[in-house]
Amino acid sequence: MSTLFLRTLREDPSDAEVPSHRLLVRGGYIRRAAPGGFTWLPLGWSVYRNVENIVREEMDRAGFQEVHFPALLPREPYEATGRWADYGDNLFRLKDRRGNDFLLAPTHEEMFTLLVKDLYSSYKDLPLSIYQIQTKYRDEARPRAGLLRGREFSMKDSYSFDIDQEGLQRSYDAHREAYQRTFDRLGLPYVIVSAVSGAMGGSASEEFLAPLEVGEDTFVRCSDMVCGYAANTEAVQVRAPGVASTDGVPNAHVEDTPNTPSITALVSLLNHEPGLRRSDRDWVAGDTLKNVIVRLRYPDGTTQALAVGLPGDREVDMKRLEAQVSPAEVEPFGDEDFAKHPSLVKGYIGPGVLGVHGTSGVRYLVDPRVAAGSRWVTGANEHGKHIVDLVCGRDFTPDGNIEAAEVHAGDPCPQCGSALEIARGIEIGHIFQLGRKYAEALGLSVLDQNGKQVVVTMGSYGIGVSRAVAAIAETCYDDKGLCWPREVAPADVHVVIAGKDEALIAAAESLCANLHNEGVRVLLDDRAGVSPGVKFNDAELIGVPTIVVVGRGVATGTVEVKDRKTGVKQDVSLAGAVPHLVALCR
Amino acid sequence: MSTLFLRTLREDPSDAEVPSHRLLVRGGYIRRAAPGGFTWLPLGWSVYRNVENIVREEMDRAGFQEVHFPALLPREPYEATGRWADYGDNLFRLKDRRGNDFLLAPTHEEMFTLLVKDLYSSYKDLPLSIYQIQTKYRDEARPRAGLLRGREFSMKDSYSFDIDQEGLQRSYDAHREAYQRTFDRLGLPYVIVSAVSGAMGGSASEEFLAPLEVGEDTFVRCSDMVCGYAANTEAVQVRAPGVASTDGVPNAHVEDTPNTPSITALVSLLNHEPGLRRSDRDWVAGDTLKNVIVRLRYPDGTTQALAVGLPGDREVDMKRLEAQVSPAEVEPFGDEDFAKHPSLVKGYIGPGVLGVHGTSGVRYLVDPRVAAGSRWVTGANEHGKHIVDLVCGRDFTPDGNIEAAEVHAGDPCPQCGSALEIARGIEIGHIFQLGRKYAEALGLSVLDQNGKQVVVTMGSYGIGVSRAVAAIAETCYDDKGLCWPREVAPADVHVVIAGKDEALIAAAESLCANLHNEGVRVLLDDRAGVSPGVKFNDAELIGVPTIVVVGRGVATGTVEVKDRKTGVKQDVSLAGAVPHLVALCR
């Protein structure tokens, strides 16, 4: 440490929002270099490389083959699949000196597809899984949380190529298993959740989430462990109720509903006016049908209004909505938009004017709970009026369904009906069944056993390598600093020289040399003029799993061995220290 | 090889100009992905990683510490040092979604300087040498020769930080030695030549050139091995002759020189007209003073005329000229330029009108051979007339010297006067003494022993890692294919199953398993339905150093072991094959 390129900080960096960012900067692992871009210092790069190597070893073990593509790519292949436009502002685009369009690749589906097309032509060549570990670029609107969401980051992306869906399922399962082994070795806890595939296209897809409060992803999990359902909230499919009977439901009737600025006030009015009450039970907020209008902006710049109908006890979940309408972006429906649609009466919008065939012409998609036979109170498209006993299917027909309503803790599990739990997580891996979208767009087909051209079926699989470093840091730290799992730690043992005595320094150096010869990775704090207290604090902050203090005990032939995570200390004889530590490290 | 992602090609790719490009594509190592961008296939990536690991090991061994920067960087630091402009069209520039300027870094001087400034503040922290191995970007006008000159490539760049010039010299020497060890291990022959530093700034600098005909660099070497002088032609410093006596040289006289469209014709006229002849010897082409006008274009877009005076037996060497005027670019001086300078008479330009104080106002720099006292025939600034016996220093005074004349084989060595040899090479490494340029521009200083702020002295050192792969390929191939040095080869042993017999296949597989257990890296050609002939050809093309043929010999208990490079074959007993091959590989 007397020569290591390192400065630890006592103070938290002012821009750090999450513990991993704070501690990786304070511990001298990373340093901000650009908005959303970080420099790895020697300790950090060592952890990064340990993580990268584990990922590589597990990919290789699964029989996937490593290749490496450029990051700077021509526009054409991404144009062919539509992603040049679909990625919108998230793509870094540039021109070369001749004015040709290039991009910095966010992922490489197109290039992998073209490469396999270039080399392979027969079903005999398949299955194939190839991967790379590479720097990726995404022009994030809000780079944040240090390594968790940057604009330049390292990713392992794999792609599988199969002759049919059964083959894809096998490749998908092989990646799923390899990912489980990888995250197990990284010491990263994870939940596998169903996901939507977003801009990637494709069908089945699952995410590996590290369940952490700082995560940007929200997921649900069934409280019944036997059921095992888990999904990103964006991917939750609300179970639609069965078709209810409308026998005995009065005809819909428009009513004055003065002074009902909130749903609570409206429900209260409904339950207190005899003519409005339900015969079977009280009205509740979930019986009101709220219609929210948004503007969708498509990558080509065109916009379209969309009405989302959902029970009044829920808000629209913007991430769920965005996942459904991607690559379009969701924008607020402003006063100028209302002005263009005079039939939409703000605060009183009802199905009467909605739908592509309605007066407004605004597309109308509803939550699955707004099912045939369900009975609602909703806006009557006139100021101060609501329509009561409006029955879906009898009195109005939406254009379709959309999963855009908030998911609440306690909602029924779509699989078994038990209560759902909600938690947050960091996406550390994602596996997709892409299907034939990319192969079709780019003309990747092979001859099958009957000599017929068959479009290849693909999968795409990613692990955020730099993000994994931060996720690991998030899972193992305390108020003193980081606590790395041994396999990714920058060293196995952190030896602190706690004193100036020459015998003590000699003992420490000899211990380090012997450990080194045994293949133990050692970090030696041999800084002169730094107090033992500062050295101890730095050791706790840096977070090597085993700390050895070579101090006063040397006089009586002992050193102190401390477990960074548990804090348990043990005096070990100097003579026995090497075998003791070697055993700890294996 | 039955599952390896590989296709070898019989035909040369149409766009390949050099052997390494041709063979790396044919052997299934790389594939073109973009203009100046290549994809590494599994075999190629394995070679690349071997090379990268050797580079890393040698840097670590020398005590340099590895870090890692983003490639996508903000404009500001490069603006501070002037490189944002100086790099001209060679820099990939882009804007993020907020319109901020970014670049894809060609090298990282600025960022390393700022990082050290961020962390360090005292002379006690120095010396420091840190490095990274990273993807670099340069918008080459003419990407060519495969991996030798791409727009996206991998480079190891190191930077040293010292308190003074003596420290820098030690750091520089340490890098020089580390580079020698690195290239020795890579099996790359090299010559260390003096170089100019170009856009990097700084003073002393040397290049490591692999002496190969396909190289873009031309260098000179003294024919006297004891002298040892070697320099990139751009860096050759012509030895100026001593001041000659002008006693007895007639006064300059203007003469009609009709019908002398060439220098040969002019010299012939001079030697045949009695009034023009020299008394001491015949005129030769080297006595004529040729004045070439060019236009310099500076990064800010401004232009300036420059006159280069040089002996008439030499042309201007554009690369030498460009190296002198960098970051300005050299453009032809066209008719419209001549129109703006009526005193310049095309074909008859002489010193009489040149120089910043001359009629033309055009800056006039001359070859060092145009020294004080040297006697010339040159243009008289009138059509059809030359001026004879014009003596430098007596009759005209240039604005200064410039090294822009072609270097010829046989020219005197600037160090010892022996004849120079000329050869071509590929730049595989470059070491610079940067000095204080970057530290000054970015404010990197530390407190010295006396508590005084001292600007840090820097060095910068690069190895082209991806280029080294191609350079190695260029140094070891034959008409059958590649011949890798063992340490970088994708495998140690290439085992060919030459037959369909089950016993033979079993013998080969068992041999491979045993070799693998001994730590020998094996490539097994187990492709079904591929003839032994095709397999042999592929083995020669791929170029693993040892080829083992498991064929008919198995019946009598032998396999054939062939050295790829020498072609020497040897029958080895199956039983003794493993120890024999293990010995070969160590």
UniProtKB/TrEMBL annotation, chains A, B:
Signal peptide: none
Molecular function GO labels: aminoacyl-tRNA deacylase activity; ATP binding; proline-tRNA ligase activity
Record's keyword annotation contains Aminoacyl-tRNA synthetase: yes
Keywords tagged on the record: Aminoacyl-tRNA synthetase, ATP-binding, Cytoplasm, Ligase, Nucleotide-binding, Protein biosynthesis
One BP annotation, GO: prolyl-tRNA aminoacylation
Enzyme Commission number(s) from the entry: 6.1.1.15
Pfam families: HGTP_anticodon (PF03129), tRNA-synt_2b (PF00587), tRNA_edit (PF04073)
One GO location term (cellular component): cytosol
Catalytic activity: tRNA(Pro) + L-proline + ATP = L-prolyl-tRNA(Pro) + AMP + diphosphate
CDD domains found in the cross-reference section: ProRS_anticodon_short (cd00861), ProRS_core_prok (cd00779)
InterPro entries hit by this protein: aa-tRNA-synt_IIb, aa-tRNA-synth_II, aa-tRNA-synth_II/BPL/LPL, Anticodon-bd, Anticodon-bd_dom_sf, Pro-tRNA-ligase_IIa, Pro-tRNA-synth_IIa_bac-type, Pro-tRNA-Synthase_IIa_type1
Regions crossing the membrane: none
Enzyme superclass (EC): ligase
Keyword Protein biosynthesis in record: yes
Domain Aminoacyl-transfer RNA synthetases class-II family profile: residue ranges: 31-485
Localization, UniProt: Cytoplasm
Summary of subunit composition and partner proteins: Homodimer.
This protein's name: Proline--tRNA ligase
Species name: freshwater metagenome
Lineage of producing organism: unclassified sequences, metagenomes, ecological metagenomes
